[in-house]
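Lab notes, practical 5.
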Amino acid sequence: MKKDDFGNRMKEYENAFRHRLPRRLPVILRIDGCHFHTFTRGMKKPFDETLTNALWETCKYLAQNIMGCKIVYHQSDEISILITNYDKLTTQSWFENNIQKMVSVSASMATAKFNEVIKSDYPDKPLATFDSRAWVLPYDEVTNYFLWRQQDATKNSISMVSQANFPHQQLQGLDGKQLQDKLLLEKGINWNDLPVWQRRGVCITKQNYLKGETQRSKWDVDHETPIFSQNRDYINQYVYLDKDE
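Output from the prediction step:
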């Protein structure tokens, strides 16, 4: 057997599972913290600003280093990234839409950056890890995806604030509105007065700024991220691009 034949045979096994996403469709990457209920033990409840800032720095790093990234949405320990590969006819896909590379590299990037940032404030914490998944969506479903995640963030926020203020047995059977009423009447906490990032998460977007007389841009947190159901164009502008057909 020739050496090349042997190598080619080994490559065939590998290539049989080398799956790629369809090109020229919106791609969603979702990166989640693994076992973060254990990792966050001992941190401030319901919201730890140091943890949140570390996740925001991770989001910015991912946005800067993932080709085709258009917007990042963060809530809890979850990061959702919209990637486009159809801006122009010549636009390339990140890792040629190779799913294994996209998810392994994005999870590795998130893990490395997050641990780099969090260690300065929590040096005794074990290493955090992240997993990742990737898929394509029809154009018309992209905003619906982010709306779904934002609704999940809102539901979790109400639950987390309630759990931080009441024992579990007092919360059983109560829906979101009832929990908000209980917080207001018994603790004087108006959930609607919490910062946007605590109520519904935030997006990391590319924002313009002036340095001297030069206009530049950087990825940063949009602390006024809207409710997506009320402002669908906030996400849609990154989906429906002025692209070459």
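Observations recorded by the TA: The longest strand covers residues 202-211. The chain has one domain: 17-149+196-237.
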